[in-house]
Design goal:
single chain, mainly alpha, globular
């Protein structure tokens, strides 16, 4: 955990900022908690507290290096998070077909 984890975790009320999963519901959920840089480091984002949020591993992976075209402004942080959330929910929907195919496999 980095220097930003605890503050971001408390700020998010121990929930994924994207899907709202309770990351203290159980040990496995806590172990899925990850830092996410709103503006990815690969896209020039800073490793600062205002650029770090807590996300579950699933949302963080679905987000990847996505960054909204609107650009990040600290005074519009909540709006930026909502834009990222919409992207992630779209990614979840796209991957649901793959998941559904696996769920329907016959037992061996």
């Amino acid at each position: 955990m980095s220097k930003h984890f605890k503050k971001a975790f408390l700020q998010s009320r121990h929930r994924c900022v994207y899907c709202c999963r309770d990351l203290l519901a159980d040990f496995d959920s806590f172990m899925l908690a990850e830092e996410d840089h709103l503006v990815p480091l690969a896209k020039g984002g800073a490793d600062t507290q205002e650029n770090v949020v807590i996300a579950c591993a699933v949302c963080n992976r679905l987000k990847g290096n996505y960054a909204p075209d609107s650009g990040f402004e600290p005074n519009k942080r909540d709006e930026y998070i909502i834009a990222v959330r919409h992207f992630i929910m779209g990614q979840r929907a796209k991957h649901m077909d793959t998941f559904s195919g696996w769920v329907c496999l016959p037992a061996p």
